[in-house]
Every structure is written in C-alpha cells, then in structure tokens.
Description:
mainly alpha
Amino acid sequence: MTYKTHIISSVIIAEIILPLTPFIKDKHQILFYFIAVFFGSLFPDIDEPLSKISKMLPNFVTYFFNKLKHRGFTHNVFGIFTINIFFLMFFYIIINKYFIVCSIGFFIGYISHLFGDIVTYQGLVLIPGKKATRLGVFKHFLVGSRNESIIYLLFLIVQILIAIAFYLTYRYIT
C-alpha cells in the first residue's frame, strides 16, 4: 500500500479501537494517540529509502534501516516486537506522561500497516525463511494500482463519516 492508504486505514482502525480504551480520555491523550498512530502506520517502511518516513526523519536515524531488505526485519514478527519494545522505552523516557497512550497508538499504527501489506500481491514474510503470507480477497492488488486507489477512496469516505461521528461524540471533552 502507499503511505496515504496506510495512514488512513490505520487511523480508521485506531478510531474504532479508541472507545475500547477507557484510559484515553482527555483531548491531549487523544492527540498523542493519533500522532503515534500516524508514525506507527509509516514506520515499517523505514527500510525503504524512498518511503515517506525515510524522507521525514534525519539520515542518521534511517541509515541502519535503509541497509535492510524492504519488507524484511521491520515487517516480520521479530521486528514487530523488537521495534515496539524499543518505542515503549523511548516513549517512557521522552514522553513520560503519555507513554502508554503513545505506545498503544504506535502499535496500532504499526500492526495496521502490516495488515495492509499482507493483503497485497507481495504479501509478507512474517517468519524469516518461510513463504510470504497473503490474506483476503485483495491478495491480487498491486501497490499503487487503480484497485488501491479505489480502496483509498472507500477508506476516505469511511474516514469522513467516522470523523463526523467522532466530532459529535468528543466535542465536549475538556
């Protein structure tokens, strides 16, 4: 999937999960949650030098990851846990007050990204040395294809509807 589709699908999933997280209550927590979802939805592609996240971050951050194979470590089970544990500690040190909220948001964005990739033609090698896994009816759509554009537009419509409902529900939060 392209970065736009990863972001919008991750935000939709995060919005669906948000009511199930009773400890994310105030508007600052919600803001940090969605910022973390945004970065989590892009982070697995840090191993691709031309990706949106690689262009957003300084070279010294992306240097190591750009040496890795795309859809390799950052897209497998070991990478998921290693990177998310690192970010859990990072958020605890840097953003202590909201570290749980950020960690959950980052994890949701990250997992949503991987789910988006697993339904594409390429699929994902979740366990190194195994065959690529492909799921669902979308397993034949190519990244950046017209089919992905249609999926993006459908997600955009859903996002607009959820945003309206979200606004109506959360506009009174202090």
